[in-house]
Write a structure and sequence with these properties.
Length: about 190
Amino acid sequence: MFIPLDSPLAKALFAANETTLRHTLLKICRESEEAHKLVMAEMFVEPPVEQPVEQPLNGEPASKKRKHDTHEAAETALVRRYARCKNCKEDYDVHLNLKHGEGKGCVWHDGELEIMDEDFPDDDEVQYGNVDPYTDWRREEFPDGFEWTCCEGNANAEGCRKTRHDCDNSTDDESPSEEEESDESDNEDSIL
């Protein structure tokens, strides 16, 4: 079904904050089996096919039990379709990331960002090393006063490494806290 961007529904969805959208989507999934299936199909992909197990050096085949266990685990595992890259910090489609040559890919720096002391000679904070180059306000105002150790580019230089995205597993267990779950049940009607 086509929904024009200027429709009341589209405007309401774009105006809502992320928490409200998540609560709304969860409620719809709880109430409709069809919606649940659609969301599952959109949010998860088939696990990648495992590469064949190499033969051990002694020439004997690997144990069938081990192969079966690995295959069974792959079938039951769910793979999220969207993940956050630990290098570029962008969200990406895992399905496209697995296919060679598809998707945008990850562009990032594998070095450290350093502030160039000589570009800020009268700044005591910089001279005494009390500046975090990743969060400091000077990075936006004076990008040429910062340098990546990997490529010598300034703070705004495009990443010098181009790779597939690397999943940031620290976001795997981002389920709502007990407080958020309690708020959801208490305020479910007010959110919707």
